[in-house]
């Protein structure tokens, strides 16, 4: 018992007084004003339905899967939606593994109410055979880091994951058209969910004896607050849900003011989510083409790799192709290159024409669709990053040319993007999006060698 | 070298590796490790006061919690927890902080084959990030037997499902990569050539298993080099984590 107490984090009296006193002058500990949100970063995984949201220091991962099940008896033609929240012990030392505690259940219920009761997700379109087969959508929310205000972050993660989720298309076949055939994503394009509106949860905390209202509390503020309220509103101004479970009593005028602030914040947040989703979907869409390109890419990979084996010094070629693509990507073709990489350029020009044609031929099949992918949309300083990558790649390539071990190549070449701590996650996301984007040939080529050695999972179905 | 794997890799090629440390704010140490599409996030909390009921209070205790991507926690997750715990117990210096518990939480972000080795690597990197005293690091690799009877490294999920036998092998980090003494020295041979953990599934002949071991040991040198470099490069930019 004492051990558990010893491990819990206690708020000191000084910190508490400081937070309350600073609020009297409209200042918060991290420099925000009382009604400001923290910085929001929404990232998506390579597969559909995986989202990662960072709201300040709070980190939540959302994952959507679907399964064909029997519907509830009182709703035979509607699909189901289930939300599972995991308060992972990695988020906070006080979270325990095992059964969800009451705050985990409360969080799940708030998000569930916002989505289900307000009919944000169209469940009738999830029906396949009335009374027999419907799609059950399962949302798993993993709380990875508790920096305060888990409800809002988890809600955004759920919405982002639902927006990018694609369920497989199914059709009726067999005798009497009663058998349901689920089509894998390669044969038929998976379908998005029908989302009518995005309910955004906005959490308010009431601090101090005057019940000063702040939006988006950090976990320090949550430890000293007197009460909290979560209002789920959508962009149209509809209130989907309000949750005020206990805590200090506040005047109804304050509640009305909070609702007004919430609708403003909701509009702002909706545009942010939609932008993030459309940027990622832009890269992914159209779905059929991207799967087609992956299939053709797999075939091309086979051809180019066998071509590589034919040439006498495959290691040189690999390095130089990689370099060439890095260099192209940085759009600095000549002149400004660093001296060490110029050696690589010379070797490159000696490469056979047939290799160029092979790679170009392979690259051209990827092209289709819009070619104005903006590398800066993710906020990475791509040019500087790519130059640094190219220079590092060149230096390494020269030292490794003597060794010429292909098995090292993967490990070393890929370790350079990791050298910079901060740009690593965006770079990987950029690279992931690169693969499926119909960008210019240079960007595609830049990513292709890296992914050449990766196995594309041929079955991308989320439905079990 | 033939190129007969589906993603164009040769037998001895690993998927692209990526390691980032200090990804979480509240955790004392955290790291993500990805091999190709397989990605695992590990976080470390500790040392906390007290040990669990049946553990020896004269030593530090390691607790592992495995969180799958979706679904309930079942027997496979418990098995992974047990393997991870025993592996990490052998690399930690347990006598430095007696009567304490260090918790390692592993979250699967994506599973595309070789999940347990990826998790072991991530947990090791997270322990380094947290500053837990370790004897040496551990590098894990998965070797599986292809149809032709030869050994292929780092299979993806489809290859893993199709193979008749595979082995997860964990080797200690090579000291040669720390001291930069070129080829292996005789005096450090006993440590480098040890195997910390070996988990096999399926039936494989003994010679093939020995070949897996030898291949895995060769690759562990490359992995150690990569691990050491990624630790080093990130060290100067470390920011203190919140308590």
TrEMBL record, chain A:
GO terms for molecular function: mRNA 3'-UTR AU-rich region binding. Residues 437-448 have a biased composition (Basic and acidic residues). GO terms for biological process: exonucleolytic trimming to generate mature 3'-end of 5.8S rRNA from tricistronic rRNA transcript (SSU-rRNA, 5.8S rRNA, LSU-rRNA); nuclear mRNA surveillance; nuclear polyadenylation-dependent rRNA catabolic process; rRNA catabolic process; TRAMP-dependent tRNA surveillance pathway; U1 snRNA 3'-end processing; U4 snRNA 3'-end processing; U5 snRNA 3'-end processing. It is found in: Cytoplasm; Nucleus. GO terms for cellular component: cytoplasmic exosome (RNase complex); nuclear exosome (RNase complex). CDD domains: RNase_PH_RRP45. Residues 449-458 have a biased composition (Basic residues). SUPFAM superfamilies: Ribonuclease PH domain 2-like, Ribosomal protein S5 domain 2-like. Keywords: Cytoplasm, Nucleus, RNA-binding. Residues 37-168, 197-263 form the Exoribonuclease phosphorolytic domain. InterPro entries: ExoRNase_PH_dom1 (IPR001247), ExoRNase_PH_dom2 (IPR015847), ExoRNase_PH_dom2_sf (IPR036345), Exosome_comp_Rrp42_subfam (IPR050590), PNPase/RNase_PH_dom_sf (IPR027408), Ribosomal_Su5_D2-typ_SF (IPR020568), Rrp45 (IPR033100). Residues 348-378, 436-464 are annotated as: Disordered. Belongs to the RNase PH family. This is Protein ECERIFERUM 7. It comes from Escallonia herrerae.
UniProtKB/TrEMBL annotation, chain B:
One of its GO terms (cellular component) is cytoplasmic exosome (RNase complex). Its main location: nucleus. Residues 13-133 form the Exoribonuclease phosphorolytic domain. Belongs to the RNase PH family. This is Exosome complex exonuclease RRP46 homolog. Transmembrane segments: none annotated. It comes from the Eukaryota. GO terms for molecular function: exonuclease activity; RNA binding. Keywords: Exonuclease, Exosome, Hydrolase, Nuclease, Nucleus, RNA-binding, rRNA processing. Pfam families: RNase_PH. CDD domains: RNase_PH_RRP46. GO terms for biological process: nuclear mRNA surveillance; poly(A)-dependent snoRNA 3'-end processing; rRNA catabolic process; rRNA processing; U4 snRNA 3'-end processing. It is found in: Nucleus, Nucleolus. The lineage of its organism: Eukaryota, Viridiplantae, Streptophyta, Embryophyta, Tracheophyta.
């Amino acid at each position: 018992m004492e051990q558990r107490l010893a491990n819990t984090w206690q708020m000191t009296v000084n910190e508490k007084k400081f937070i309350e006193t600073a609020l009297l002058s409209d200042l918060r500990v991290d420099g925000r004003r009382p009604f400001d949100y923290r910085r929001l970063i929404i990232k998506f995984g390579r597969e559909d339905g995986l989202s990662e949201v960072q709201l300040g220091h709070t980190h939540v991962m959302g994952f959507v899967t679907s399964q064909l099940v029997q519907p509830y008896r009182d709703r035979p033609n509607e699909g189901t939606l289930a939300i599972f929240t995991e308060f992972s012990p990695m988020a906070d030392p006080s979270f325990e593994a095992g059964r969800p505690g009451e705050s985990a259940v409360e969080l799940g219920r708030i998000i569930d109410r916002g989505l289900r009761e307000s009919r944000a997700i169209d469940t009738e379109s999830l029906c396949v055979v009335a009374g027999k087969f419907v799609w059950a959508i399962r949302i798993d929310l993993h709380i990875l880091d508790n920096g305060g205000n888990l409800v809002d972050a988890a809600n955004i993660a759920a919405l982002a994951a639902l927006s990018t989720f694609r369920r497989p298309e199914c059709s009726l076949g067999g005798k009497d058209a009663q058998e349901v055939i689920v089509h894998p994503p390669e044969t038929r394009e998976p379908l998005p969910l029908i989302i009518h509106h995005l309910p955004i949860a906005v959490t308010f905390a009431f601090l101090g004896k005057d019940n000063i209202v702040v939006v988006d509390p950090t976990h320090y503020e949550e430890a000293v607050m007197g009460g909290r309220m979560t209002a789920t509103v959508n962009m149209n101004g509809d209130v989907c849900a309000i949750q005020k479970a206990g805590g200090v009593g506040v005047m109804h005028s304050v509640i009305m003011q909070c609702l007004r602030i919430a609708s403003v914040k909701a509009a702002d947040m909706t545009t942010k989510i939609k932008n993030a989703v459309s940027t990622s979907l832009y890269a992914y869409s159209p779905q059929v083409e991207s799967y087609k390109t992956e299939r053709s890419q797999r075939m091309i990979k086979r051809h180019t790799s066998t071509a590589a084996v034919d040439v006498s010094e495959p290691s040189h070629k690999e390095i130089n192709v990689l370099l060439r693509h890095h260099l192209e990507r940085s759009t600095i073709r000549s002149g400004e290159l660093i001296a060490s990489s110029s050696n690589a350029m010379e070797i490159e020009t000696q490469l056979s024409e047939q290799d160029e044609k092979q790679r170009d031929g392979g690259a051209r099949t990827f092209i289709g669709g819009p070619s104005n992918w903006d590398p800066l949309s993710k906020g990475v300083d791509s040019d500087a990053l790519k130059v640094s990558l190219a220079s590092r790649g060149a230096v390494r390539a020269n030292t490794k040319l003597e060794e010429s071990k292909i098995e090292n190549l993967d490990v070393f070449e890929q370790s350079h993007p990791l050298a910079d701590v901060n740009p690593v996650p965006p770079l990987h996301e950029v690279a992931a999006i690169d693969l499926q984007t119909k960008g210019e040939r240079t960007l595609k080529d830049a990513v292709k060698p890296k992914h050449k050695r990766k196995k594309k999972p041929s079955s991308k179905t989320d439905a079990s | 070298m033939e190129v007969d794997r589906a993603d164009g890799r040769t037998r001895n090629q690993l998927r692209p590796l990526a390691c980032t440390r200090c990804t979480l704010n509240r955790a004392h140490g955290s790291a993500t490790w990805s091999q190709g599409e397989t990605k695992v996030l590990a976080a470390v909390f500790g040392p906390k006061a007290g040990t669990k009921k049946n553990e020896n209070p004269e030593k530090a205790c390691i607790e592992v919690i495995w969180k799958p991507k979706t679904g309930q926690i079942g027997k496979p997750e418990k098995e992974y927890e047990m393997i991870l715990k025993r592996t990490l117990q052998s690399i930690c210096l347990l006598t430095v902080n007696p009567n304490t518990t260090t918790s390692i939480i592993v979250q699967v972000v994506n599973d595309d084959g070789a999940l347990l080795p990826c998790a072991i690597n991530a947990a090791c990197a997270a322990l380094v990030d947290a500053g837990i005293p370790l004897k040496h690091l551990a590098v894990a690799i998965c070797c599986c037997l292809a149809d032709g009877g030869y050994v292929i490294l780092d299979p993806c999920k489809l290859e893993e499902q199709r193979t008749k036998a595979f082995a997860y092998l964990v080797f200690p980090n090579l000291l040669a990569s720390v001291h930069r003494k070129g080829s292996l020295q005789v005096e450090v041979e006993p440590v480098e050539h040890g195997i910390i953990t070996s988990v096999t599934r399926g039936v494989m002949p003994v010679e093939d298993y020995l070949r897996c071991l030898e291949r895995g040991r060769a690759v562990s040198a490359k992995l150690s080099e990569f691990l050491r470099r990624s630790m080093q490069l990130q060290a100067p930019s470390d920011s203190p984590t919140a308590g």
